[in-house]
Amino acid sequence: MKLLKLRFPVIRPGQHLRGVIVLSLLLALVVISNLFFISPDGHAVASNDSTCAGCHRDIHESFIHTAHFHDSAPADSNSIKGSFEEGKNVFAFNAFMTVAMLKEGNTYRQSATVNGSEVQSANFDVVIGSGRNGQTYLYWANNQLFQLPVSYYRPAGVWCNSPGFPNYAFFNREIRPNCLECHTSYVKVLPSADNHFEFSRESMVFGITCSRCHPGSDQHAAYQLDHPGEKEAKYVVNPARLGRQLRMDACGLCHSGFRVALKPAFSFKVGDSLALYSIGKPVSQQGDTLDVHGNQVGLLTASKCYMSSPGMDCFTCHDVHKTQFNEPKLFSEKCVSCHDGLTGPACTVKVDKNIVLSDNCVDCHMPIRASRAITLNVANGGQFLPDYLRSHYIAVYPDAMASFVRKHSAARP
Ligand code: HEC
Ligand code: HEC
Ligand code: HEC
Ligand code: HEC
Ligand code: HEC
Ligand code: HEC
Ligand code: HEC
Q1: What pTM does this model have?
Q2: Who lines ligand 2 at CB under 6 A?
Q3: Which of 109, 167, 219, 347 is 20 to 30 Å from 81 at the Cα level?
């Protein structure tokens, strides 16, 4: 286990940069990365999603707005969410060392200065993170990728120090293949003589694209285009048709936390058994292992819902072709489809009859919990604030129930 510290500045209402928050991130196992590359089907990943649009227009139209699709991108004024405006473009690591985010034409760079003189600088080349929660940035140096010292923290709308960077800026934090395996659709890992990791720049496919979840889709598209009368799909994998463990593995590649790799990055394909490619770690149901690299698979599979319903998987509730965020009612309909009192037990809680339960099962049973893995330390105030995430351990939470009732009673006149 490795303890990493990071700092986030916080802005409170009516105040300027208030202080520095320290995030103590308990990143468990550092994934053993791959020393060589085998490309079983590299070309299949590099498909152009727009070919799919011709025949799957609705899915394509909604998918291109999702966090998956925008999860990584070349750096530009659109993809970088932080501000380059004067007054908002400087992050202070300590009293002497600051990093300025500079826009020069179509080039964006981070410039680290000590007592006002530049000591090092590098361009924003690759953006990781759609900006839903946060973003971090990478730069190319020959065929290697390195993380920039300053990231963007969406909830406060400010620049912050990158996860794992202590209270000074540096530019030699190398990116390993596993990071890109979860955050891009494909990049070719080049053989390298020593302990470095090199990638082919041109091969990188940004975002999480159709073919990442639907292997065989290039061959499928070519075949269907050649046989326009054909109504049956050929060659492409639809995760819904797999057995349950393989359906869970389809999402588990990226949504079961950091894993110890047994095989090279990008060798797993949807339809394979994930256990042959990497090993996950045990999960606690208390939220203490949750962070932005959360383990939805571990928490869900520990829930009674999952254990008692052989058909349940991640897409019982999620349509990954759409953006479904902050929609408790939509998700509650999924709960009620099983908990209608006939197929499965209905809710037994007794509350004031004016409180409507059916609009929001999730805030009581899948509450947003304080993570104990990430603690925010407001350095000036000496206060510790936790980070918050939606728990996928579906259960009865008396404290969540109490705050739900408080909130909904207060909301009425
Ligand atoms: C020329 C038309 C055409 C193109 C192009 C095309 N598909 Fe299809 N696809 C079909 C047809 C027809 C079906 C079968 C009917 C259906 O499920 O819509 C299908 C079905 C599918 C299925 C479901 C398979 C199943 O077994 O349930 C997936 C997944 C899929 N396509 C993905 C893709 C992806 C990804 C692309 C782009 C790389 C793509 N398709 C391009 C025509 C096309
Ligand atoms: C095992 C897969 C995996 C690995 C490895 C991984 N990530 Fe992530 N990362 C995720 C997932 C999944 C999320 C979204 C988390 C959630 O909502 O639960 C995420 C979230 C993020 C976010 C915030 C995006 C947002 O808005 O939610 C950033 C930034 C990020 N990762 C950067 C990195 C970097 C940099 C590396 C490598 C040094 C890395 N990640 C390694 C899977 C991974
Ligand atoms: C994150 C993984 C993921 C990505 C990315 C993804 N899909 Fe899917 N897709 C799924 C899953 C899971 C299903 C099965 C959904 C179900 O039946 O509940 C599916 C089902 C389908 C189907 C079968 C018909 C249907 O409506 O369910 C088609 C067609 C399809 N996807 C096309 C696409 C296209 C085209 C893209 C890109 C624009 C895409 N998918 C991107 C995971 C993904
Ligand atoms: C290749 C890695 C990968 C795979 C496979 C994958 N995801 Fe994700 N997923 C991510 C990352 C990374 C993010 C964070 C995106 C961001 O905000 O930058 C994410 C975000 C999400 C979100 C939050 C989206 C939002 O708008 O808030 C949901 C829900 C989700 N994934 C569900 C799934 C499901 C269900 C599957 C399986 C069908 C799946 N994912 C497969 C990597 C993956
Ligand atoms: C696919 C069907 C299905 C879906 C969808 C589903 N559940 Fe369940 N859930 C079950 C089954 C089956 C049980 C076990 C009931 C029993 O023990 O008799 C269960 C158990 C529970 C329990 C009791 C947990 C415990 O530890 O005692 C709660 C609370 C619950 N579900 C809430 C929810 C909520 C909230 C949702 C939506 C976010 C949901 N469920 C979605 C099938 C489902
Ligand atoms: C019983 C329903 C249900 C199931 C099953 C389910 N989720 Fe979720 N998930 C939710 C709800 C509800 C939210 C909050 C959505 C919102 O903001 O409206 C959510 C949010 C998310 C997010 C956004 C990050 C966060 O913490 O807010 C990710 C990522 C995600 N789910 C991944 C998954 C994956 C992967 C699986 C399968 C292991 C899965 N979910 C299974 C109900 C479910
Ligand atoms: C105000 C918070 C709250 C809301 C909203 C809520 N529940 Fe509950 N639910 C509870 C509590 C608390 C219990 C435990 C009650 C007890 O044991 O007396 C419970 C019990 C349950 C159980 C377990 C029943 C059993 O077999 O013991 C299920 C299933 C359930 N809820 C499902 C749901 C679903 C589905 C919804 C949305 C329609 C929902 N709940 C909305 C608080 C809530």
Answers
A1: 0.91
A2: 128-136, 147, 175, 178-179, 182-183, 254-255, 258-259, 292-294
A3: 167
